[in-house]
Every structure is written in structure tokens, then in C-alpha cells.
Amino acid sequence: MIIALLLTLVQSPPSDPKPVDTRPVDATAPKIRLEQGGVEAPKQPELTSQSTWTRSPRFAPVGLTRPDGDFTTPISSLAAVRGQEDNTVVGIGLVTGLSGTGDSIDAGKQLLSNFLRTRNIRLDAQSLASKNVALVQVDCTLVAGVKAGRRVDVTVSAIGDATSLVGGTLLLTELTDITGQTVYATASGPLTVGGFQAEGQGASAKKNQTTVGTLPNGGKVEREVPTTLVSEHGYIYLDLKTGQDTLGNCVRIAESINSLYPKCAATTPDGKSIQVSVPRDLPDTLHAAYLQTMLEREIVTKNIARVLISERTGTIVMGGDVRLRPGAIAQGAITVTIAETPVTSQPGPFSQGQTKTDPRTKLDVKEDNSGLIYVPGAVSLQEVVDVLNVLGTTPRDLITILELMAQGGLLEAEIRRM
After folding, report:
1. Same-domain status, 216 and 114
2. How far apart are CA 311 and CA 90, in angstroms?
């Protein structure tokens, strides 16, 4: 029997050994656990989005002082001479040499075709590629008395859908007055753009504005803008500037001029200008010197109590004549934080299920619990600043408080929104 069993083992072929997997094992690879009769469902997303609102520490201002005495201002800073205004001339031009960042509209093609016709080159507008050209508006400011032949700075801004003016050159453009009939300047040359833009398939970078450029000394004055110093009736008019047009300033300027030249100055009926008579025996060449002696005089200004507010940037500017009446203020800010985190549920393979997205919202509401604060009266700008700093609010909250204080009579100032 033993001999028969040995013969059977010798005659049966040996079975092939099972191959061994010698590939390295990745410890970070997800482990899939197989169950009898099914496959494990894929792992669901676990990440969540967050939204937070924080407030930076309050800035502690440093107290500043100025020398004692009245604050005086020269008349030249308070009033402008009528007839010596700056003038703006505009034009529509074409910027060429762009690297595929120009307009895609047909207006640029048509303007390029019209420009070529001035050079006796006739091409159909539809046959021109406009991605390297851009339709632009050209602006230039001519100061009073600028003479023909002088060079001036020019600003160029895109009108169409051009994405960048970097590397472009402005073709010769005529700059006219508001009627478009009289040419006062021309402009041409390479643009200077204070920014850049770089794009790829998956990312882009941009700094500053790339659709606005300048031409330093790129404009040339072709015609002088008429200006006057003395009117046809023999008077010089000094118009108060914006923000300085108070009756007090108007009267004080007239008194200061009369102290230098008796009975030469008088206020206009509207209280916004000063009328100065010019001696008839004074030569025209001395009119400028006669006016300059008045503009150099300094007076103690009297301005309107005004608070300037910019809600877009949260900026507040107060004048020195702002006053506060006693009152009480309670201010409680409400902060609402909302975070949306949709969750997608993915069914397992062969499960006959459907992908489903469920909304998930995280809502956080925070309300400040502040009590009623007594606001004492303030008669100087420093006292006003000290009182408002006690409230401890942000500039945007302070804007609302100032508006309500003005409506309630606590703030003695004009609120002007910028």
C-alpha cells in the first residue's frame, strides 16, 4: 500500500506555484474593501467652506499740535481769476501695434480704413484685422495762455473692448473743442501704460489699469485758446473756489484789497466774487503786476462747517468749524456671516442610484450689545474728534452716526457725500 501511494505521487505532475506580486505597496492609496455581492461606494467629499468676518485693532491716533495764532491763507488759494481757466480738448483716435489685445468691433476697422484713405490707400474695412488696433478717446488740458507750438501731456483711454494698450502707438489725432469744429492741438506717439497683463490657459496676472495710457509731451498746441485778464468794462473778477465760497471770505478779500488800493474792490450781489476796478491810466503791461500784488495778500479765512463723506471708501473729512451739541447715542452693529457648502452624494457602482447635491448653509449672526453713550458738546475740532473716538466705531459705522446726528440737530455742519 505504501508502494502504491509513492507511485501515485511520482506520476502526478506538480502544481504550478501561485505568482507573487512584487510591486511596492502605496501606503497613501485608498483601500477598497470588497464585499460579497457588491462594491464599496466611493468616498464622499468631506471639505467644507468657511466665511469669517474680523475687525482689525483700533488705530490709536497720535496727537498733533500747531503753533498758536490765526491761520492765514493767500488770496490766490481762495479765488481764481475769471478768464484764466483751463480748457479741455478731446479727440477720437486709433492706437496701433497692439499684440492681439485690440478691439474686436467693426468701428476700429472702419476708422483704420478711413485713416488709410487719407494716405491714398483704399481697403475694404472688412478685409482688415482689428485685433492689433484699438479705438480710443484722447484728452488734453490746455492751461490758460499756453502758446502755439508748446508740448503738453495727453491721456488716452480705450472706448471699445480692447483688453490692453501696452506697446501701442497713437496715430496722429486732432483735438478739438466741444463743437468739434476748431482744432486746438494734435497728438501722436508711443503710449506709456502704468500696468501689465499676462495670461495663460489656467491663470492670469494683471497690475493696475491697462486700458488707459499717457503720452508725456505727446501733444502739440496748434492754436492758442483766447484768455482775458481784464474785462471789456475795465474790471478784474476774482471768483471764489469751491469749498471757499463763503460770504465771510468774500467780504474779507474785498477789505484786504481796499486796504491796499482804496475803493477798488467790491463784492458782487451773489457774494461769490470780488470785482476789482483797474485804473484807466495803468498800462496793459502792468495789469499782471497790479493783480499779483492783490493775490499775494493773506487773510484769516472763514469757511463753512462741512463734513465730507465717501461711502465707497469709508473716508470722513471734517472742517475746523464743525460743532457738536450734547446728546446720547446707542449704536449696535450686526454682523451676518453666511457660508454655502453644497454636498454632492455619489452613488456606488452598479447601484442604480443618482448623483444628488444637497445644500448646506452655515449662518452666523453677531450683534454688539452696547449701551447708551452720553455725548458732551464740543466747540473745537479736537474736542469733536475726542468725542467721536469714544464711540469706538469703524469709519463706516461713523458715517451713519454723523448723518443721523446732523438730522437730529446734534451735528452743526453740512453733510456732503462724495
Report:
1. yes
2. 31
Percent of the chain surpassing pLDDT 90? 19
Q: Which domain holds residue 167?
A: 87-195+208-221
pLDDT in tens, 37-84: 445 555 655 656 666 666 666 665 555 555 555 678 889 888 999 988
**8-state DSSP, 326:** -
**Cβ atoms within 10 Å, residue 378:** 20
Question: What is the count of structural domains for the chain?
Answer: 3
Q: Which amino acid is at 270?
A: D
**Cα–Cα distance, 283 to 287 (Å, whole number):** 7
Query: 213 and 234 share a domain?
Result: no
Dig out the grid coordinates for 76 from the structure.
Answer: 490766490
Name the packing angle between helices 247-260 and 287-295 (round to 10°).
Answer: 120
User: Which conformational region is residue 225 in: left (phi greater than 0), alpha (psi within -120 to 50 degrees), or beta?
Assistant: beta
pTM, two decimals, is: 0.61
Closest CA to 38 of 348, 345, 347, 346: 348
Pairwise CA distance, residues 87 & 175, whole Å: 12
Q: What is the CA radius of gyration of the chain?
A: 38
Q: 161 and 189 in contact (C-beta within 8 Å)?
A: no
Of 353, 227, 230, 361, the C-alpha closest to 283 is 230
